[in-house]
Design goal:
Layout (H helix, E strand, L loop, with lengths): L6 H6 L16 H17 L24 E6 L9 E3 L13 H17 L4 E6 L5 H11 L6 E4 L6
Parallel strand pairs: 1-3, 3-4
Antiparallel strand pairs: 1-2
Helix pairs in contact: 3-4
């Protein structure tokens, strides 16, 4: 059954208007400006820690090694019989290796084994330019006990 719509009813029902959706755009320029200002601030305001830096000798030849795939040991200048050694990059307090040579060798070997299990294949020894080679040799000897590791000595690149 069909119903006929009266003319009066058509006047009563107003035709629906199409909604206009406003598309708003977010202006990214101020956010980018703030990002660059923060970046510049942190670059200018941050200073490297001079206490943990090591004075490396300059290189004549060689290629770089990725620190992501390396176990790093640092030998600092000083000490009476044994140079201070650190497990990591720089003379960071809390990462010191013991002055007893046997326990130092044991800890170095354990750190190299752990790094090898994590997929690290290089050992990098950073030594201050005034450190005696015998100190470097002790770390090299302890590191070489783990088969498959490559030993590297850190130097500064010449320009």
């Amino acid at each position: 059954m069909l119903l006929k719509v009266d003319d009066e009813f058509e006047d009563f029902v107003a035709p629906q208007r199409a909604r206009q959706v406003e598309e708003t755009e977010l202006d990214m320029t101020p956010m980018i400006d703030i990002t660059f200002l923060l970046l510049i601030f942190f670059l200018v305001a941050s200073t490297p820690d001079k206490n943990t830096a090591v004075d490396l000798p300059k290189a004549q030849h060689g290629t770089g090694v990725s620190q992501l795939h390396s176990i790093v040991f640092t030998l600092g200048e000083g000490g009476i019989d044994v140079a201070p050694a650190f497990n990591g990059d720089g003379k960071v307090p809390g990462t010191e290796l013991p002055n007893d040579l046997e326990s130092r060798a044991t800890q170095v070997e354990a750190a190299v084994k752990k790094g090898f299990e994590e997929g690290k294949t290089d050992v990098v020894i950073k030594a201050d330019r005034n450190v005696k080679f015998r100190e470097i040799h002790r770390l090299m000897k302890a590191s070489a006990k783990v088969l498959g590791m490559k030993l590297n000595l850190a130097v500064l690149e010449t320009e």
